[in-house]
Amino acid sequence: MEYVLETRALGKQYKSFRALHDLNMHIPKGAIYGFVGKNGAGKTTLIRVICGLQEPTAGSYSLYGCQNSSRNMAKMRRRMGAVVETPAIYPEMTARENLEQQYRVLGLPSMSGIDGLLKLVGLENTGRKKAGDFSLGMRQRLGIAVALCGGPDFLVLDEPVNGLDPEGIVEIRELILRLNRQEGITILISSHILDELSRLATHYGFIDGGTMVKELSAVELERLCRKAIHVKVSDTKALLRVADSLALPCELCGGMEADIYGEVTVTALVEALSREGCTLLSLTERDEGLESFYMNLLGGERHA
Ligand code: ATP
Fold first, then answer.
1. How far away, in angstroms, is 19 Cα from ligand 1 center?
2. Domain co-membership, 143 together with 89
3. 199 occurs within a structural domain
4. Taking the chain (304 residues) in consecutive chunks of 10 residues, what is each chunk's mean pLDDT?
5. Neighbours of 215 (CB within 10 A)
6. For the chain, what is the domain count?
C-alpha cells in the first residue's frame, strides 16, 4: 500500500507533558482519513507536527516517502495544504484577494487558477464582500481554497465542521467529497463529530492519550459494526446447520453464544432451530455504528 503520510513511533514532549507517544499512523493515497479522539488526545499536536509547525521530540514521519529529516522535506511539503485551527484568511479582503495574496506568498507565476478555485469551493459569486462578513461556513471554505493554492495533493483539515450550522456542514462535506473523488486529493480530517465523519471517511485512526489505539478502513469498520443478532442456544452445532440452511452468516462467540448477520426472521429461525432439537435461550439485537465502536474502543464520554 502506498502511504501519503506515515509516522513511526512519533513523540512530542512539552516539558514534562507527553502530548504524543509512540504514535504510528498510516494514511493511504486517495483516502479520506478520519482522525478521532477526545479533547486533548493529541490530534492538533500531531497535525502541527506533520505540517512542520512543530518538531517531533521522538520518532519520525515521512511524507510521500520523504523522511522528515531529509533536505527534500520542504519541497515535499508543497504537495500538502492545511487548515489548522482557524482558517488563515484576511478578513478585510475579498475571497479573490485572499487567494491572490496566497498566490503571491507561494510565488506562483500566474493567477489563472483562482477562478477555478473559487468555483470549486462555491465562492465564485461573493464579489466585493469581505471575508470578515462571510458566514463561518464560507470562511471555512475560503480557508480550504487558500490551502488549495499551489495544487496540493494532500489536504489536512483540523476540525473543519466545528461550530458550523447544518447547511454549512453539508457544504463542507460535499466539498471534501468533491476534492477527494474528482480532484484525487488525499484528505486527513480530525473531527469530534463522529456521525459526520462516518459519512466521509474511507479510513479511521483512533488516538487516545497521544497514542494511536487503532487504525482501520471503513470497510473493516463496517464489517465489525454490521447489524447482528446475538443469540444463546442449547446446541451450537444445530445453530450452525440452521444458519447455513437459511444462508445467514454466523460466527460463534464461545460458550453457547453466536452472532448472526443479515436479515434474520426470528420466527423462521426459532422454528428451524426447534426442528433441529435446539432451544433459543436468548436473543439481543446489535447495531453498532461508529460512535458505539468508538465507545467500546476508548470508553468515556458520548462524544469524542
Ligand atoms: P482538542 O480536540 O481539544 O483540540 P486535541 O486532541 O487536538 O484536542 P491537542 O491540542 O493536540 O489535543 O493537545 C494535546 C495535549 O497537549 C493537551 O493536553 C494540551 O493541553 C497539551 N498541549 C498542547 N500544546 C501544548 C503546549 N504548547 N505546551 C504544553 N502542553 C500543550
1. 7
2. yes
3. yes
4. 94 93 97 93 94 94 93 90 87 96 90 91 93 93 94 93 87 93 95 86 95 93 79 95 91 90 86 94 82 76 46
5. 17
6. 2
